[in-house]
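Q: I'm writing a short methods note and want an example of a predicted protein-small molecule complex. Could you take the sequence and the SMILES for zinc ion and return the bound structure as tokens? Please keep the output block clean; save any remarks for afterwards.
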Amino acid sequence: MSKKPLVSRVYKYKNKSSTFFCPLCSTERGITTSPRLTKKNMFQIFLTAIVLGSALFPFIGVKCFFVFFVVWGIFELAVRTDYKKQISCPHCGFDATWYKRDVKVARQLVKDFWVQKQGLVDQKSKL
Ligand SMILES: [Zn+2]
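A: Understood, no commentary inside the block.
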């Protein structure tokens, strides 16, 4: 018996970098970002660092090159957060990043997701 996807008609992402099937509900998923910085991101980091660095140079001197690493760190964090947001399944709450790290946490996340979903349904039926 083949498992039927929970949602078979899904929103088709533009410029998606990869597609996969949710291991829990078999819905086709697409993600637009990768957890790594793109060349465009590196360019943005470089520009931001130059602008910030030259603005801070009169005050902190040569130390302003640290700004580059700070900006890099912020970008890296933003890209990863964005990726993480996309990786968790909007249909069943399955999070592959957590599943790799801690299966218990991943299970709890799915549970929470359904509790929340059920809560929303209950609220609607009350109205
Ligand atoms: Zn799913």
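A: Remarks, as requested: The longest strand covers residues 18-21. The chain has four helices and two strands.
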